C-alpha cells in the first residue's frame, strides 16, 4: 500500500506499493554544503561518511513502514473475514489516513517549533502500539481502532522524516534521498507479501501485526546521534493551534462522511451533513489558496498528490480482496500480485531523478498519471474468468512506475516552491492532501463497493459469494480520477510574472 513513498504507507503507503505518504518533501536549504551535522569527514553522497548513519536510519524506518504496508495488504482480506467485518473493509485503510491527517498537521507545527526529534520518536511508539492493538483485536471495530492509532504514529513520523531531510541534507542531495526512500521499498515489497502470507496461513493473521513492533528499536539507535546533531529550529513561537484544530476538524468530518457512506440510510444524512460542515470550510483553510481549483504552481502540486495517491490506493486496497474472493487465490498469491508495483515505483522514482530529465518534469508527471489510469483499468479484466489472474500483476507493474514518476517528481517541485522557514508546514500540507485524497477516495471506493453488493462477500470457502460489479465500480471510478490527475499536471508550472 500505496509513503507508499506509505500503502503508506502506509502513507502512506501507503505501500503492496509504497503508500503515498512517504513522498512529501521539505523546503530547500540554502546552504550549498548542507550545513554541519557535527559528524566527522566529508559527504559527497547520501552514503558518504557525514550522512551515512542518518541515511541508514531514515531508510530503515521507511523500510519498516513499507514492510508493514505490504504485510497489511496481504493479511487484510483474511483478517476482515475472520472478524466478520468485510463491510468495514475500507475503514481498515481509511481509518489510518483519517488519523494521520490530524497527526501530520500536528507534526508539522511540532517540528517547526521544537525540531523533529520528539515527534519522530513519539510517532514510532504510536505506530508500534497500533500494531499491537490491531493484532489483538477481537472485533472488527477494535481492529479499525488499532489502524487509527497506527495512523497517528505514521502521520507524526512521515512529516518529521522530511523535515530531517530538509535540515540535514543540501539541496543537491535531496533528490537522491527521495530516490533512496523509494528504493527502501524494494526489499519489503518482495519479502513482505511472501512473509505475511506464510505467517497468515501457518500461524494466523494476528502474528503479522504482533511481530512487527520488535523491529522499531534498531533504526532509532542508528539515527539518534545524527538527529541530536541537527541544527535547532529557527522558530521559537508556540504552535499554531488554529491549524491543528482545523486538521482535527477535517479528520472528524471525514470520519463522519465515511460512516454515513457505509450506512446509506436516511439517518445517515445527519452525520453526512455534519461531516460536510466540518470538512469543507476547514480543508479550504488548511491547504494553500487555489488548491481545489488547480491554481498554477504549488496549489496544483499539492492537489495532484492527493489525486494520485488516493486513486491508486483506492483501487489497490481492493485488489487482494478481489483476488481472494473472486479468483480464489491464496492470501500469499494475492499479496505477491502487488510486488511488481513496489519495484517499478522505485524505478520510476529513479528515472525522474536523472538530471537530463529535469526540463521535462511536468510531462513525466502527466505520463505517470496516464499509466496509473491504464493500470487500474486493466485490473478490470481480472474480473473475467477467461482472463488469467496474473494480468493484475502486469497492471500493477505499469501503475507502480507511473506512481514513481508522478509522486517523486511532485516532491522535487515542492522543493523548488518552498521557503526554508516553512519546511514543516509545507510538508504537512502535502501530506494533508495525501491523507485527504486517501480518505476521500478510499472512502468513495468503500461506498461503491457496498452499494454494488460487496458487503455480501462475507462467507468463506466454496459458499463465498461473488460480486464482480462491486469491484468493477471501484476500478472504473478510480481510473477516472487518475485521468483527472493527468489534466492537473498541465497546471503544475507556475505563471511567470
UniProtKB/TrEMBL annotation:
Keywords: Membrane, Transmembrane, Transmembrane helix
TM annotation in the entry: 53-76, 88-108, 120-142, 148-165, 177-199, 205-224, 244-261, 267-288, 300-323, 329-352, 364-383, 389-415, 435-457, 469-488
Low complexity bias: start-end ranges: 11-28
InterPro entries: MFS (IPR011701), MFS_dom (IPR020846), MFS_trans_sf (IPR036259)
Domain Major facilitator superfamily (MFS) profile per the UniProt entry, residue ranges: 54-497
Predominant subcellular localization, coarse grouping: membrane
Record carries keyword Membrane: yes
The keyword Membrane is assigned to this record: yes
GO MF term (any one): transmembrane transporter activity
Start-end of Basic and acidic residues biased regions: 1-10
PROSITE patterns the UniProt entry points to: MFS
Its membrane topology: Multi-pass membrane protein
GO cellular component terms given for this protein: plasma membrane
UniProt xrefs under Pfam families: MFS_1 (PF07690)
Organism superkingdom: Bacteria
Xref: PANTHER family: MAJOR FACILITATOR SUPERFAMILY, MULTIDRUG-EFFLUX TRANSPORTER RV1634-RELATED
Protein name per the record: MFS transporter
Lineage: Bacteria, Bacillati, Actinomycetota, Actinomycetes, Kitasatosporales
